[in-house]
Design goal:
The complex is a heterodimer of chains A (421) and B (181). Chain A has 421 residues and is α+β, with helices and mostly antiparallel strands. Chain A has two domains: 184 residues, Oxidoreductase, molybdopterin-binding domain (Sulfite Oxidase, Chain A, domain 2); 122 residues, Immunoglobulin-like (Sandwich). Chain A has eight helices and 23 strands. By secondary structure, chain B is mainly alpha-helical. Chain B has seven helices and four strands. Chain B has a two-stranded antiparallel sheet with strand order 2-3. Chain B is globular. The chains are: A alpha+beta (421), B mainly alpha (181). Chains A and B meet through strand 3, strand 4, strand 5, helix 5 and strand 12 of A and helix 1, strand 1, helix 3, helix 6 and strand 4 of B. Strand 4 of chain A pairs antiparallel with strand 1 of chain B.
Chain lengths: 421, 181
C-alpha cells in the first residue's frame, strides 16, 4: 500500500489535526502534483470525486486561427478581472510577490505626476554637507535588491470592531503587498553627507500634495533602509512612489515615504500630523501609544476565504501569507476547528526576513462546518495573538496594528465568511 | 540569499569611515548646497517650535480665512458634523475612552506646532502650499480657538504657538524601541 495510490482516499489520509487537516508532508513529497492540479482548476475546486464525467475533448477555436500580436506592455488575460480597490486582492493571488499593478495604494492627497528629470532629493539638517541628488545621480550608485512586504498600519482594523464585518481577504486584509525593490543604501548617502553625532532621528518627506512626512529613528536608517528606484524589476509605479521612495523594511507602510524628496537629520522626532493624529494607538484607558513602528508577526489564510466558495467535500489546499516586520517567519500553524487543534503548515521557499511567506497545508474537508485559522511565529519567538488577547490589552479603539488571528467559517453550503470565535 | 543583502553598500559604508578613501572610492554624486538654496524646502517644525517662521495671526483674523478656504470640507465649526468630507478639527473632548472616540486637534493632538507644520504643507487640500505664514498662524489660532484652547485675540507666533497647552499631551507615551503592546 503506497501513499501515492491512496493519497486522496479518506481512510488513508494522514490527518494531523481536527476536522481533516492533513500532514504538510503530503505537500512536500508530492508538492508538484498537487500544485499543478490546483493551478489548472478554477478557484479551489479539486474534488476527490471529480474524476467521473463525460466531457469529450475537442480542438479549441483558438488553435484554428493564428493568435493576435502581443502588446508592447503586457496586460492580464481578458478573462482575469483583478482590481485593487485600493486593497490588494489577496484571495486571487498566489506566491509571495504582488504584481505592481495590484500593489495596495494609500495616498494622503493623490498620486503626483512627477517629471523624473525635475525631481530632486535633498539630505540636510544635522549633516556636515547638505546634498541634493538628481535621479540620474542616484542611478549611478551601487544597487541592491530586496524582497520586502509593505503593510498599512490600518490593515485588518475591521478586527477591532465588536461584531465581525462582512468582507473578504481583500477588503479586510488587503492593505498588504510584497515586491522586489531595488535601489541605493540610505546609509551610504548619509555617510557621504556626513552625519553629525547629535543626529538621532530623521524626517522623510514626499513630493506629493500632502508633502507627507514621517520621523524615523536614525538607527533604522543605518540598519537596512534604502531608497528604492525599481519595483519588481521596472521603475517604481507612480502610485507606489515613482521615481523614488524610502524603504524601511518591516516598518508600517506609511513610513516608507513615497515620492521621496527630502531627508532631514534631527535630534528628535518632529511630531508630524501622521505620527501624532494618525498611526498612534488610542488604548482603552485613554493613553496613546506612539511610535510603534514594526509590523508584528501575523498571518492570514487567503484560500479558502470569503468569496471563494467551496465546491463539495474532498481535498483542498489551505494557503495563505505570513509575515513579520521583526524578522523571519519560522512557523505557521493552521486550525480547521476554530483553534482547538493545530497543524504545522509547509512554508514555501524562499522564506525571507520582512517579506511575505507563503504557507500551505492540505485539507480534507468532510463537508461539515469548519473554522479556519492560521497563527504565525517569527524568529524572535513572537506568536501571533488571538483577537481576544489583543483586544484585552488595547481595547477596540486602537485602530492600527491589528495582527490578531483571523477566522474564516466554512458552512456546509461551501460559503466562507469572516467570523469571530 | 546573498543577493538580498547590502553587500556593496555596506562595503562602501566601511570605506566611508576613513575620509580620504571615501572621497576617492564613493560615488559622491550629490551636489553640495547652501541653506539659502534649500530655504523653500526647509519647512519642518519641531515640537519645541524650532523652524517656526516670522509672522503672526489671531483667531479673529483666522475666522474669515477659515470660512473661505477650509469650511467647505471641514465644516463651519470643524466639529465633525454630517456632510463633511474631511476629518473634524474641533470638539470630541471626553470621548476618547468611550465607544465612539472623536479624535480632533483639541481632543487628541499632543502638539500645537503640528498644526502649523501640517496646514502650511498640506492645506487647503485643493490648493496646498498657497497660504502665507501669517495666514497659517491665523488659521492655527482659529482652529485652537474652536477648541477653546486660546482666546480670539491671542496672538500666535513662533514664541506663543509652542506654548499652547494641548490637553491630551500627557496621554501620549512612546513605544519605540522596545515596548510591545
Amino acid at each position: 500500500m503506497t501513499k501515492r495510490s491512496t493519497f486522496l482516499a479518506t481512510d488513508h489520509i494522514d490527518v494531523v489535526a481536527g476536522n481533516g487537516l492533513m500532514s504538510r508532508r503530503h505537500l512536500i513529497t508530492r508538492g508538484a502534483a498537487v500544485t499543478s492540479a490546483l493551478g489548472a482548476g478554477s478557484l479551489m475546486a479539486l474534488r476527490s470525486s471529480a474524476s467521473a464525467g463525460s466531457e469529450v475533448l475537442t480542438i479549441p477555436e483558438w488553435m484554428k486561427v493564428p493568435g493576435r500580436d502581443f502588446e508592447p506592455y503586457g496586460t492580464p488575460s481578458r478573462f482575469e478581472k483583478l482590481t485593487r480597490n485600493p486593497r490588494t486582492p489577496l484571495q486571487f493571488l498566489d506566491g509571495m510577490i504582488t504584481p505592481s499593478g495590484l500593489h495596495f495604494v494609500i495616498t494622503h492627497n493623490g498620486v503626483p505626476d512627477i517629471d523624473p528629470d525635475q525631481h530632486r532629493f535633498l539630505i540636510h539638517g544635522l549633516v556636515k554637507r547638505p546634498l541634493v541628488f538628481t535621479l540620474e545621480a542616484l542611478e549611478r550608485y551601487p544597487r541592491s535588491s530586496r524582497i520586502v512586504f509593505l503593510e498599512c498600519a490600518g490593515n485588518s482594523r475591521a478586527l477591532y470592531s465588536e461584531q465581525p464585518v462582512k468582507g473578504d481577504a481583500q477588503s479586510i486584509h488587503g492593505l498588504l503587498s510584497c515586491a522586489e525593490w531595488t535601489g541605493v543604501s540610505l546609509a551610504l548617502l548619509l555617510d557621504e553627507a556626513g552625519i553629525d553625532p547629535r543626529a538621532k532621528w530623521l524626517l522623510a518627506e514626499g513630493a506629493d500634495a500632502a508633502a507627507m512626512s514621517r520621523s524615523i529613528p536614525l538607527a533604522k536608517a543605518l540598519d537596512d533602509a534604502f531608497i528604492a528606484l525599481y519595483q519588481n524589476g521596472e521603475p517604481l509605479r507612480p502610485a507606489n512612489g515613482y521615481p523614488m521612495r524610502l524603504m524601511v523594511p518591516g516598518y508600517h507602510g506609511n513610513m516608507n515615504v513615497k515620492w521621496l524628496r527630502r531627508i532631514e537629520l534631527t535630534e528628535g522626532p518632529m511630531m508630524t500630523k501622521d505620527e501624532t493624529s494618525h498611526y498612534s494607538m488610542l488604548l482603552k484607558d485613554g493613553r496613546v501609544a506612539q511610535f510603534k513602528f514594526p509590523i508584528d508577526g501575523k498571518s492570514v489564510i487567503t484560500r479558502p476565504s470569503p468569496g471563494l466558495t467551496m465546491n463539495g467535500p474532498g481535498f483542498y489546499e489551505i494557503s495563505g501569507l505570513a509575515w513579520s516586520g521583526n524578522g523571519k517567519v519560522v512557523k505557521v500553524e493552521v486550525s480547521a476547528d476554530g483553534g482547538h487543534s493545530w497543524a504545522d503548515a509547509a512554508l514555501s521557499e524562499p522564506v525571507l526576513s520582512k517579506a511575505l511567506t507563503r504557507f500551505r497545508l492540505p485539507w480534507h474537508w468532510n463537508g461539515g462546518p469548519a473554522v479556519l485559522q492560521s497563527r504565525a511565529t517569527d524568529d524572535t519567538g513572537y506568536v501571533q495573538p488571538t483577537r481576544e488577547q489583543l483586544i484585552a490589552k488595547r481595547g477596540n479603539n486602537a485602530f492600527y496594528f491589528n495582527n490578531a488571528i483571523s477566522s474564516w467559517a466554512v458552512a456546509a453550503s461551501g460559503q466562507v465568511s469572516n467570523v469571530y470565535v | 540569499m546573498s543577493t538580498y543583502k547590502w553587500i556593496i553598500a555596506s562595503a562602501f559604508a566601511v570605506v566611508g569611515g576613513t575620509c580620504a578613501a571615501a572621497n576617492v572610492d564613493g560615488p559622491h554624486l550629490g551636489r553640495v548646497v547652501t541653506q539659502a538654496d534649500i530655504a523653500a524646502w526647509d519647512i519642518s517644525i519641531a515640537p519645541d517650535g524650532t523652524g517656526l517662521p516670522a509672522g503672526a495671526g489671531t483667531a479673529k483674523q483666522g475666522e474669515p480665512l477659515y470660512v473661505a478656504r477650509c469650511a467647505a470640507c471641514h465644516g463651519i465649526k470643524g466639529d465633525g458634523q454630517v456632510g463633511q468630507t474631511a476629518p473634524p478639527l474641533a470638539g470630541g473632548f471626553g470621548t476618547l475612552t468611550g465607544d465612539k472616540p472623536l479624535k480632533t486637534v483639541g481632543s487628541y493632538w499632543p502638539y500645537a506646532t503640528t498644526l502649523f507644520d501640517y496646514v502650511r504643507r498640506a492645506m487647503p487640500a485643493i490648493q496646498p502650499e498657497s497660504l502665507t505664514n501669517d495666514e497659517v498662524y491665523a488659521l492655527a489660532a482659529y482652529v485652537l480657538y474652536l477648541n477653546h484652547l486660546v482666546g480670539d485675540s491671542d496672538v500666535m507666533n513662533a514664541k506663543t504657538l509652542p506654548k499652547v497647552k494641548m490637553p491630551n499631551r500627557a496621554k501620549f507615551f512612546v513605544v519605540y524601541p522596545n515596548k510591545r503592546l
